Amino acid sequence: MMLRLSLPLILLSHSAYSMLLGWVESPGYPSGYLPHSSLNWSRCAPKGHTLSIRLIHLDLEDSHECENDAVKVYSNGNLISVLCGKREFEELQSTVNPLLLSSPGGCLSLHFYSDFSNTKRHTGFRGFYTVQDFDECEDDPENGCTQFCHNFIGGYHCSCRHGYYLDADKHTCTVSCSKDLSGLTRGDISSPSWPGSYAENANCEYTLSVAPNLQLELHFSGVFDLEQGHDGQCIDALRVETRTGTLGPFCGNTAPPSPLLTYSHNVKIRFTTDGYGTNKGFFFHFKTTDKLCPPVVTLHSTLAPEKSEYRQGQTVTVTCDQGYVVNIQGVQTLSTEYVTTCQVTGEWAPDNACELVDCGVPEIPEDDILYLVGTDTPHTKYGDQIQFNCSSKYYTLEGDDTYSCSASGEWVSGSGQSQIPKCTPVCGMHEKDISSIGRILGGQDANLGEIPWHLLIKEPSRGGASLINDRWAITAAHVVENLGDMQLVLYGGLVNAQTRDRFSDVVVLNSEKIIIHPGFSKETPLRGRIDFDNDIALIRFTSRVNLGPNLLPICLPEANRALVTNEQGTVSGWGKTETKRDPGKLQGASRMLKYAHIAVKSLDQCRDTPTIEGNQHVRFTDNMFCAGADGKDSCQKDSGGPFVTPYLSAGGPYYLAGIVSWGPPCEERKYKGYYTKVANYIDWIKETIDSEGNS
Ligand SMILES: *[C@@H]1O[C@H](CO)[C@@H](O)[C@H](O)[C@H]1NC(C)=O
Ligand SMILES: *[C@@H]1O[C@H](CO)[C@@H](O)[C@H](O)[C@H]1NC(C)=O
Ligand SMILES: [Ca+2]
Ligand SMILES: [Ca+2]
Ligand SMILES: [Ca+2]
Question: Peptidase S1 domain: from which residue to which, for each copy (predicted)?
Answer without folding.
Answer: 440-690
